[in-house]
Amino acid sequence: MIEELLAEAATDMGQVVEHTAQEFATVRTGRANPQILSRVQVDYYGSRTPLQQLATVSVPEARLLMVTPFDKSILADIEAAIREAGLGLSTGNDGNIIRISFPILTEERRRDLVKVVRGMAEDGRVGIRRARRACKEDLEALEGEISEDDIHRGERSLQDMTDAHTDKIDQQLAQKEQDLLEV
To answer: For the domain bounded by 34-101, which CATH number is listed?
Structure first.
């Protein structure tokens, strides 16, 4: 029974780590990364549709993304949605594709993005602690059914698991900070 609770907590914590990594990918580092467009929603026939469902995104150069829509008639809508997303990217449209260039980040903007990424990491740590707390409450609810020693062993395993997942987020944060501060 303890193993099941720990396995469920490990799954929840793993999902938090994965979500945090996806959030980190949406922060631009000065290099072209298609993930930055993952939140862009295009108004397509009256409904908000993710850009990835309407076009392919490729990286031909280090500071350039190319967006090729499946339907050329929505090229202007896609370009407008990218500009409205507030990503600080400049777009160019040649009638068939949209070229998105990544300007060089200023030092001040890099520092601001590091603060944003640190906030995302803290949100991830909070999610891990939330999963830990839920599992710990479930373990404590088993107090009459299993021995206190087993509960304490389970809590120790839970804390080790929490530390390991928190370390993964910290490693991801360190890598993202390094990417952001790299000139």
So the answer is: 3.30.1360.40
Q: Do 134 and 16 touch, CB atoms closer than 8 A?
A: no
Using the structure block, give the residue that is written with the tokens 């909070």.
126
The residue extents of the domains of the chain are 2-26+106-181, 34-101
Per-residue pLDDT of the chain (183 residues; tens, 9 = 90+): 889 999 999 999 999 999 999 888 878 776 777 888 888 899 888 889 998 899 999 988 888 889 999 988 889 899 889 888 877 778 888 888 999 887 777 888 888 889 989 999 999 999 999 999 999 999 999 888 888 899 999 999 999 999 999 999 999 999 999 888 876
pTM for this prediction: 0.72
Architecture of domain 2-26+106-181: Orthogonal Bundle (1.10)
